[in-house]
Design brief:
Layout lengths: L1 E8 L2 E10 L14 E10 L7 E2 L11 E4 L4 E6 L6 E2 L4 E7 L2 E6 L4 E6 L6 E2 L4 E5 L1
Parallel strand pairs: 4-9
Antiparallel strand pairs: 1-2, 2-3, 5-12, 6-8, 6-11, 7-10, 8-9, 10-12
Length: 134
Amino acid sequence: MVRKFRVVVNGKEYIVEVEEIGNVRKKESAEKPAKEVSQKVIQEIPKEEPKPVVMEKEESPDQEEKLVKAPMAGIVLKLLVKEGQKVNVGDKLLVFEAMKMENELQSEFSGTVKEILVKEGDNIEIGQILMKIV
């Protein structure tokens, strides 16, 4: 009888097939040798790389200003844009650390950076407004 198992070894995940060899009994005495098993790695599952964080956009009452909000709590490591700079969809705005990983915040729309409300080293919270883009 062959069974499949998902096994993690040293942080790598594998799917293995295990074949049971010999008689199968419900009760075995401690004196009898353990069943022999053969193993074969079927497929190594690659570890997923973190995907860049995409910012949320929200329109303010004047319908032109977009608010860039923090998607998760963390620390601002590096600002990649300046006030007055034009940005396009997909441009990187800043790098922040969250859960011991560096994350890039990318723009979802084009416009001009009107105001940057954080500086490098600042702690940020979920939903905190980081920038305004018009």
